[in-house]
Amino acid sequence: MENPAAAIPAGIDLEARRRRERRVRLLTRWIPAGACAALAGLYLLCATVRGFDLRIGLEVVVANASLVALVATGATFIFSCGSFDLSLGSNMLVSALVGVLLGRTSGRMEAVVLGCLGTAVLLSLLNSLLASFFNLPVFIMTIVMMNVYSAAATLMITSFGQNSAVILPAAMTAHLNRTWFYLLVMALFELFCCVLFYLRPLGRRQRFLGGNPICARLSGIRAKRLTVASFALAGIGIGLASLLLIVQTPTLSASSGSSVGMNMLIALVFGGMNMNGGPRSRMYAALLGAFSMAFLDALMNIFVTGSWYLQIVKGALFVTVVFLFSLGRRQTMLER
After folding, report:
1. pTM (2 decimals)?
2. Which of 7, 32, 132, 331 has the most crowded CB, counting CB atoms within 10 A?
3. What proportions of the chain, in percent to the nearest 5, are helix, strand and coil?
4. Closest by Cα among 185, 193, 281, 182 to 232
């Protein structure tokens, strides 16, 4: 017969370990918000000491963060299902080019908006069809489609552009090139996505599918239909980002928005998003990560001019954040 006294130390050790793991999970959950606040405070301090115009600097931060935030917020629906898409940046450029061409032809801003949103959603649905219904490997498919969209953008610029650029008259978008407009679009889209993700069955099913695809299917969740809906919602975010890209820079070239795709992945991880999807997915991670990256870019540009050092810093932060988040996960238990 087992001695009851012998089980007491083991029980105490188990409870202490659980408390320790809860503290680590709580700490890692607050790291993204703390990092964003620290970067913002450090930027404001350094910009003030160096004599920079804070109003102009913050406007640049909001403009840079808006593109990444919109794409990353929409992509959260895809990643929460356990899926993946690397072609979001190329999709945004093609959608922006279609919007510029339609706006230049019709002379109406409504055509630009419809062109951006419609093209982005259609291209996202094409990705979902290839990934879901034809059972293609998602990683390979998104790399192929990224190259296809990049080639399509180059062909459009060559065919319809001048001096390797497609230009929309600046007068059509000048009244929208305001910080309040960027904030309004981000806030409305974030609110819309949070309602779907946290308050509607769609978000719960997506997290369930990402956490355990087999149990989700056995529970009656239609994975293919849910994947199509996730890609369509991501397309809305891409379309809004392409619209803001046109508003910021009416002259589009093959390099316009080229860094958005990679910055979106870094922003999601830096904001606390679990790239494997499941119940640990966070919709607000996109917004936190986007502003963290924007403040980091602005902070680094105060001291050094160039882009190579930013990639090194972002890569180091990416690895560090992934390591810190891995500390709060228990591999011996199923996600709940």
Report:
1. 0.86
2. 32
3. 75, 0, 20
4. 193
